[in-house]
Amino acid sequence: MEFDPKTPQFLTSDPSSFASVSADDRWPVIITGAIDDLHRTSAEVSDAEKQKEAKAIIEKLAKLKYELQHNRQLTPLDDDGESDIASYNQELEQRGNPVWHDAPWLYAECYLYRRIETFFALSTHWKGYDVFARQKMSTFKSSRPAVLELAARYRELALEAESGKSSEGKSPEEIEEAEKLLFSEMCEICLWGNATDLSLLTSLTYEDIQKLQGSQARKASQSNILVNDIDAAFATLQKARREKKDGERRVDIILDNSGFELFVDLILAGYLLSTGLATSIILHPKRLPWFVSDVTPKDFSDLLNSMVDPQAFYTAADDTGKTYPKLSEKEVEDVRFLFEQWSGFHQDGKLIVRPHHFWTTQGCYWRLPHQAPELFEDLKESELVLLKGDLNYRKLTNDAQWDPTTPFTTAIGPLGPKSGVRILAFRTCKADTVVGLPPGTDEKLRQQPDGGGDQGRKWAWSGKWAVVSFSDGKA
């Protein structure tokens, strides 16, 4: 806490903020979903000891839900042998052992997922079990139309680039302009992939997911990007490619959600590698199940495995018994093309998956240079560090009540100017904290229907609006 900014954080006791909605409405639903998942899985288990242990974990989840709904104090985490437990418990004490409905939102939500993890980590038969995995893969399957659309578009672009047709008869300026537009499109796909955050959208139907994805939805949302620094990021990668033609040019992606969002992150990664805007990509997943849909290393392999036989994956009956139409031969080829390219990059060491315990600690990224100095030094080696999604943005800014016109470079503190780390944050707004807005923008959006008016910044809760914010810490 000593390295955090002094600007106050959002609290679960603030009825005008999404913090309060989270504690009241979202978290009980998420815990109930975890209970249901474990109940379903354990019902199929024949080992009596394993079943008995699952029942004990369900009881712990139910107790956690009771404490949350009856506004009890947060209690110290049980030691599961990991190094972060002491830090969580020390901070809990420093914060005065708050109750659920009057706690800093960022700390309380991280604590919630970390506590759930202890239930499984301390078990004998359920270590490493992810109560959210079923939901994650089901949502990726629901993204079938957008996956097929993007796979076809990407394959077409890759084959065109390979043949050299994309630059035939064009001047260097025209080639650069075309590349800049394509980079912008890839980044926007990456940005709006965040629309399927399972921890926020707890009751999505198959049809809802389809509406959130696809090119029409992205085009309609273009004017909703309130801060757009994509061109600055492109200029940075372009300059590095020119000046370090034969050298290592690495891009890091601090991942957010699995499923469709991980799929679009890999589309961007594949594009950067195949165009030479990067020579290697390092993906940073979470080391444990986190905020329902966040990527773990297993989610990465599950996604690739689903693409080995897309026909089987996309036509298999779902939990309700509903079946789906067969993919065409071309659709199968498009998805397999991606699988082969991505697994090839992975095997060649150009696409690396690197989890780190820091990403599931309870605090903001202002603490990174002090809490994980080796990770901080490593990120300085990157040409560009992309941070995906709402939680990474909240952690960059300490989920604090900044004035919305505060420069992004100010709100990210030690990761800002002269840090040695170059940052691009992709964020569809799903929480109150927002910075870098032009004067008057927040006030104007508050006056829109459901914008919040004087009652709060409700316009920033829905995911309709986005920011893409850049900070050149190497300048």
TrEMBL record:
The keyword Transit peptide does not apply. One of its GO terms (cellular component) is nucleus. Its EC number is 3.1.3.-. It catalyses: beta-D-fructose 6-phosphate = dihydroxyacetone + D-glyceraldehyde 3-phosphate; beta-D-fructose 1-phosphate + H2O = D-fructose + phosphate. Residues 9-20 have a biased composition (Polar residues). GO terms for biological process: DNA damage response. Signal peptide: none annotated. InterPro entries: ARMT-1-like_metal-bd_sf, ARMT1, ARMT1-like_metal-bd. Residues 1-20, 438-458 are annotated as: Disordered. Pfam families: ARMT1-like_dom (PF01937). One of its GO terms (molecular function) is phosphatase activity. Its cofactor is Mn(2+); Ni(2+). Residues 23-445 form the Damage-control phosphatase ARMT1-like metal-binding domain. Keywords: Coiled coil, Hydrolase, Manganese, Metal-binding. Residues 230-257 form a coiled coil. It is an enzyme of class 3 (hydrolase). Belongs to the damage-control phosphatase family. Sugar phosphate phosphatase III subfamily. Metal-dependent phosphatase that shows phosphatase activity against several substrates, including fructose-1-phosphate and fructose-6-phosphate. Its preference for fructose-1-phosphate, a strong glycating agent that causes DNA damage rather than a canonical yeast metabolite, suggests a damage-control function in hexose phosphate metabolism. Subfamily III proteins have a conserved RTxK motif about 40-50 residues from the C-terminus; the threonine may be replaced by serine or cysteine. This is Sugar phosphate phosphatase. It comes from Penicillium chermesinum.
